[in-house]
Every structure is written in C-alpha cells, then in structure tokens.
Amino acid sequence: MRRPDFRLAFLLAAGMLFLSLSLAACMGVSPAASGAGDGDAESADVPQELAIFDAGSFGEPTTIDNVWLPMQPGARFVYEGTTVKEDGEVVPHRVEIYITDLTKVVGDVRSVVSWDLDYTNDELVEAELAFYAQADDGTVWHLGQYPEEYEDGKFVDAPAWIHGIEGAHAGIHMQADPQPDTPSYAQGWGPAVDWTDRGQVDQVGQQTCVPVDCYEDVLVIAETSASEPDAEQLKYYARGVGNVRVGWRGEGETTQEVLELVEYSQLSPEELAGVRAQALELEKSAYERSKDVYAQTSPAE
C-alpha cells in the first residue's frame, strides 16, 4: 500500500488557508469573523461577518459630522415614550443622551464619549458611557460601552464590552452613505455580554413628526439581535439631527419601546462641565467594578 504524502497534504492545507484568507479580505471580512483568527472561542462563534476595523483609517476620529448622526460636544437629546414589559405592563420611559467633550482611546483610536441615562417610571435604571469614532470615509463606528444597571437605586450589573477585550469587536453605528436593499451590518460584537446587535437600512425618504419638529427625508434603520431574531427596533434618523424616533415591529421582543425626541439642545459651558464631571464619576465606578474590561483601558481625557 502506498504511504500518504504528508508533505503534499500540508502544502494543500496551507494553500486552502491562504485562499480562505484572501477571499475573506476581498469580501471585507476580518480574520476573526472569517474563522481564521487565533482560535478564540468567541471568534469561532461569530455568526455573520464583521467589518474590518482599521485604526489607520481614522484621521480625525473625534470629528463626527456624519449627516445622519452628528455628535457635537455639548449636544443633549431627550426622548420620552413608553415600554411594554414582558407581562404586558406599560410604563413611562425616558432616555437622556449627552455628547460630552471627553475622549477615550479604544483600539488605538481616540473616540467621542457619550453619557446616557435611562429612566423607567422616573427611576434611573441604567447609566452608560459609550464610545464612537468616525472613519475617514464618514462611517461612524461604535467601539464599545460601559453600562451600569440599577434596581431600586442599587447597582445590579455592568455588562461592558470594549473593542479588543474579551473577544469584543467594534461595529458600524451609522454608514457613511446608507442605501436601501443593502446587507445588514454588525453594530458591534461583545460575546461575553451577548452583544450581537445588527442594523440594516429599512426605509429612506420617510416623514415623521415628533415634539421637537417635523422632518422629511428620514432614514429608518431596523435593528435586531441574535437573541431576538424575529423582533426589530426601528430607529428614525433626520439629517443634521440624528435619531428622532424609536419604534418596533415583529414578535418575541420581551420589551417594546416607543420613544420620541422631546428635547434637542446645546449645553452651556457650565452645563457641559457638569456633564463631564458626572461622566468621569461613572468612569471612576467603571474602573472599580469592571476589572476585566474597563480597567484594561486608558482614562478618558
């Protein structure tokens, strides 16, 4: 019997690996997403392709002027609406988003820091720091987040994910030129905390009115996740403003949110200083409570 040619088998395997990596690069898939990474379990379990995050493509990352998602330091967005809980109870819901003048380096890219507050029945249930950067082509990336969850005023959990830590990968928060009939995209990948959100252009050229104003040529992004594939959150974006409405559709969603933009303003220098101080207080807590994730990052500045 002829003995197997192990040298030939090795060469064939190497050739197949090279071809796989080449195809992945041509398709815009990162090595981790293509399954050709370093063998981490998180990489092997990625369900769909992740866009390649290239730190070298961020010339002025903190200048976020994407027409659909501008982030000017000092901008304040307030949303009000309702949330339908799993048991059918409808409760008031309020979200406040502040674009701070702080920046933080994540994945070798300096990012803009937002400070977000989430209220249910006038009770603070979550405070969050989130990190965004704009690439040279106008794409706004989501580099991670640190949320603190509360119940009855007491800390409960902090399911943080940050690019490059525990298998997490940055995702696209807003495309540079969103177009209909295009594939969905990962909005980040945080396997340790089950962050699997994806977005897809759902509608363009829409009209909507909220307490702040009426808008035309509105972009609608449908968001879903691996844990709730049959439910979608619909986010409405107005040019030059950003997110102005949140809705939902589908089945199986445990909580159904409906939110409208009720306040949109620019903070005074004194107000911005107050927001900065509170965001830094949350970061201080993050360093104490998130040793494996947030404590591995450099401080916001």
**How many helices does DSSP assign?**
4
The domain tally reads 2
Beta-strand fraction estimate: 35-45%
Shape: globular
Number of strands: 14
Find the CATH topology of the largest domain.
YmcC-like fold
- Over the alpha carbons, how many angstroms does the gyration radius reach? 21 Å
CATH class of the largest domain: Mainly Beta
Question: Can you describe what's shown?
Answer:
The structure is a single chain. The chain has about 300 residues and is an alpha+beta fold. It folds into two domains: about 1-30; about 65-295, Beta Barrel (YmcC-like fold). It has four helices and 14 strands. Strands 1, 2, 3, 4, 5, 6, 7, 8, 9, 10, 11, 12, 13 and 14 form a 14-stranded antiparallel β-sheet that branches. Strand 13 and strand 14 (about 255-265) form a beta hairpin. The longest helix has 21 residues, at about 5-25. It is globular and about 40 Å long.
Key features of this structure:
301 residues; alpha+beta; YmcC-like fold; 14 strands; disordered N terminus
Short characterization:
The protein has 301 residues and is of the alpha+beta class. It has helices at 6-26, 31-34, 41-44, 269-289; strands at residues 75-84, 90-106, 109-120, 123-134, 140-151, 154-157, 161-162, 171-174, 185-186, 198-209, 214-225, 228-238, 242-250, 256-266. 17% of the residues lie in helices and 43% in strands.
Give me the secondary-structure topology:
Layout: H1 6-26, H2 31-34, H3 41-44, E1 75-84, E2 90-106, E3 109-120, E4 123-134, E5 140-151, E6 154-157, E7 161-162, E8 171-174, E9 185-186, E10 198-209, E11 214-225, E12 228-238, E13 242-250, E14 256-266, H4 269-289
Antiparallel strand pairs: 1-2, 1-14, 2-3, 3-4, 4-5, 5-6, 5-7, 5-8, 9-10, 10-11, 11-12, 12-13, 13-14
